[in-house]
Amino acid sequence: MNKEKEKAITALKTSKGQIEGIIKMIEDGRYCIDVSNQIVAASALLKKANMLILKQHLNHCVKEAFLNNNGEEKVDEIIELLSRISSK
Amino acid sequence: MNKEKEKAITALKTSKGQIEGIIKMIEDGRYCIDVSNQIVAASALLKKANMLILKQHLNHCVKEAFLNNNGEEKVDEIIELLSRISSK
Amino acid sequence: MNKEKEKAITALKTSKGQIEGIIKMIEDGRYCIDVSNQIVAASALLKKANMLILKQHLNHCVKEAFLNNNGEEKVDEIIELLSRISSK
Amino acid sequence: MNKEKEKAITALKTSKGQIEGIIKMIEDGRYCIDVSNQIVAASALLKKANMLILKQHLNHCVKEAFLNNNGEEKVDEIIELLSRISSK
């Protein structure tokens, strides 16, 4: 597994742990704005994981595809994904 | 616990389950774009949870504060949070 | 016109000026990443304007509605808007 | 100028026109939520323009760089940009 994937897994695991904490915060009746701020932090980790996955995708799969002269399809796939990312 | 908090917990638990699935997808070497799309889906659930928390915060804490004539501080708190949400 | 609305108009006018500059950058064949970074900057100003509009909406219309015991409808309206904001 | 750049300019011009309309809406004292919804629409057009710029950047500059075996720097540049996009 490459370095980016390892880092992505770390970010995902941390995010998962934060979500468990957030559920407990709600159950304990903690202040809403504190809960919301934690949700924002967990979201930021998911974004980070996604950027790492995308980075190694570009450097491996997309590079390979360009060298084999069929990169355009890969680019379409990425743009479609990004349109959804920047809209979540 | 009010209805919005219950729904928020459900969304958070689903998101947590998805993240566990995503970690496994990466470990299994699944295609990057499929991994990314799942991360986007998990993020969307966190956003949903956050909107539910915010909704009941407005309808309870903020309403209460306005009736006691000290709502402006609550509004500042929300705007600060939203500036961070819409920027994650 | 209140202070927030004035600041929002200033942000919108600056954003408009930036967009004019971006169109010229593309016509002049400037480097794509520089163009993209300018688009991100113009977007950030729109977000800022939106937060200012929302702030004074909460402090005036929504406050008024809570005092007249019909705030829930206003809150639904805001949550619907925010679901769209945080998804653009 | 390629097709994506032309479409990006169209989106930017439409967005600029919308912003002019939004400024007028605020000056005319129009309802805040209507103003906010228009700001969201103008933002969506900026995002669209950015995706078009990025698409042709990948299909031209980045492809070229990979063929010349120096694509990694381009990828870093894109990831840095995207981290900012998905955070505005």
TrEMBL record, chains A, B, C, D:
Homodimer. It is found in: Cytoplasm. Keywords: Cytoplasm, Metal-binding. Transmembrane segments: none annotated. GO terms for biological process: negative regulation of DNA-templated transcription. One of its GO terms (cellular component) is cytoplasm. InterPro entries: Metal_Tscrpt_repr, Metal_Tscrpt_repr_sf. It comes from Clostridium acetobutylicum (strain ATCC 824 / DSM 792 / JCM 1419 / IAM 19013 / LMG 5710 / NBRC 13948 / NRRL B-527 / VKM B-1787 / 2291 / W). GO terms for molecular function: DNA binding; metal ion binding. This is Copper-sensing transcriptional repressor CsoR. Its main location: cytoplasm.
